[in-house]
Amino acid sequence: MEAASKPRDLAGDKAQRIVNAMRDSVARRGAAGSTFDHVAREAGVSRGLLHYYFGTKERLLVEVVRRDTDIRMAMLDAALADAHTADDFIDALLRSLEDLIQNDPDFVTLWFELFTVARRNEEIGAEVAELTRRTREHVSELLEAKQSEGVVRLHDEADAVTTVLFALGDGIAMRILVEPERDFSETLRAGVACARALLTDSG
């Protein structure tokens, strides 16, 4: 994406209130139902300020997911820093997934809403691809570092392993949120077995 298309500086309180209001609105109404009028009113700012900072509703949604992803990555970094064995590493991944589902299911909703928007909007699709690439590369670097430390032994290239781990986490999270009354303990156990096979290659 061209630098000119990026949102303006978002460090200020008003910009963060807008991002928070959009997050809450999408969780309640979905992306299609979250208008700039809704968000401006709930953030306590003018509609024009949303246009000033973000330009379009879709770019605002991208910024919401970007911020939340950065927060999640920082939490994962902290959790994995103390992993000294493959089991420690897998336990940290599992705790991260469980925390996401139990305490922040809106994050999963945001990602799937953004994916839907990206399929219809080429510009937003490019933004989402870049965010996905950056996240994948970050986790791949974590895996490579842990392999260098002897904590894990990757079954394949770090990039490929990361992609499969994300696919596992995303798929399990979606199914748990779709069927909240179902016991997913066996599914999680199977997911852990898959992760262990990817992170403890013996061949």
3D architecture notes:
About 80% of the residues lie in helices and about 0% in strands. It has 9 helices and no strands. It has helices spanning about 15-35, 35-45, 45-55, 55-80, 85-105, 105-120, 120-150, 160-180, 185-200. The longest helix has 27 residues, at about 120-150. The chain is elongated, with a radius of gyration of 18 Å.
Strand coverage percent: under 5%
- The count of DSSP E runs of length 2 or more, i.e. the number of strands, is 0
* H and E order: HHHHHHHHH
Secondary structure category: mainly alpha
Mean pLDDT across every amino acid position: 88
* DSSP helix fraction: over 70%
Strand count, sense and closure of the main sheet?
A: none
**Silhouette:** elongated
Low-pLDDT runs of 5+ residues are 1-5
Radius of gyration: 18 Å
List the total number of helices.
9
Terminus-to-terminus distance: 41 Å
Summed up:
The protein is mainly α. 78% of the residues lie in helices and 0% in strands.
Task: Note the topology.
Elements: H1 13-33, H2 36-43, H3 47-54, H4 57-81, H5 86-103, H6 105-120, H7 122-148, H8 158-178, H9 185-199
Task: List its salient traits.
mainly alpha; 9 helices; about 200 residues; elongated
